[in-house]
Amino acid sequence: MASKLYLVATPIGNLQDITLRALETLRSVDLIAAEDTRHAAILLRHYDIHKPTVSYHDFNERNVAPQLVAQMQEGKSIALITDAGTPGISDPGFYLVRAALAENIIVEAISGPSACLAAITISGLPCDRFVFEGFPPAKKGRQTFFQNLAHEARTIVLYEAPQRVPRTLQDILSHWGDRRMALARELTKIHEEVKRGRVSAIIAGLQDRPLKGECVLVVEGRPKEKSTNDSAPGD
Ligand code: SAM
């Protein structure tokens, strides 16, 4: 296999959600760079893949990326995987991709799952155009973040940690209004759940128990001004 950097998408939950090409790539590279090598070991063991792994994450990327680039310049091929989904999407990857491209190393996508795409396609909200905004800032810049998106007409996709979902929904309600939305939780896993409805109704449904698991919020864009004849399907 020629020296390349492969960005390999891995499952967002269900271990079956991996492409044949991803498995073939992981089997044939010289080295697998993984966000968490112990987490990667679960996937690699499941598919009986035995390759050296090296840790590559947000906190060591500046040190490790040059080492990985040097190895590729020596002729090694490297696959980058993260804990879930597509590397680079709210995950480590960009820094290494840029460093590799700067040295004319070929970077190839081994495409596959991403929680963003899985959530928006099942949300029931328009997905011909959308904006992916990743995780809302937890503190600094948070109010500005929501204010700046208030006039966005395209569907908005956010990632959020479960314990922060209630507060984020309150901020969405106060900055964007009571829009239609979907809360997609634990996609492709045993406890997969998708709640669809107005923001206020989703908030009301979360009162009784703390939310657990991984969550994507899909919120409709700013609704068009209604003419008097317009009705809202699903209201
Ligand atoms: N690179 C990943 C991708 O392509 O989707 C995203 C990684 S980001 C660090 C992790 C976030 O993705 C989680 O906090 C959650 O918002 C979302 N996520 C990942 N797996 C998910 C799942 N099975 N169900 C719902 N959301 C998920």
Account of the 3D structure:
- The chain is an alpha/beta fold and 235 residues long.
- It has 2 domains: 106 residues, 3-Layer(aba) Sandwich (Cobalt-precorrin-4 Transmethylase, domain 1); 105 residues, Methyltransferase, Cobalt-precorrin-4 Transmethylase, Domain 2.
- The longest helix has 13 residues.
- The N and C termini lie far apart (55 Å).
- The model has no long low-confidence stretch (mean pLDDT 95).
- It binds S-adenosylmethionine.
- The site of S-adenosylmethionine has 24 residues, from helix 5, strand 7, strand 8 and strand 10.
Topology, pairings included?
Elements: E1 4-8, H1 20-28, E2 31-34, H2 37-46, E3 53-55, H3 61-73, E4 78-81, H4 94-102, E5 106-110, H5 115-123, E6 130-132, H6 142-149, E7 155-160, H7 165-176, E8 180-185, E9 193-198, H8 199-205, E10 215-219
The protein binds S-adenosylmethionine (SAM).
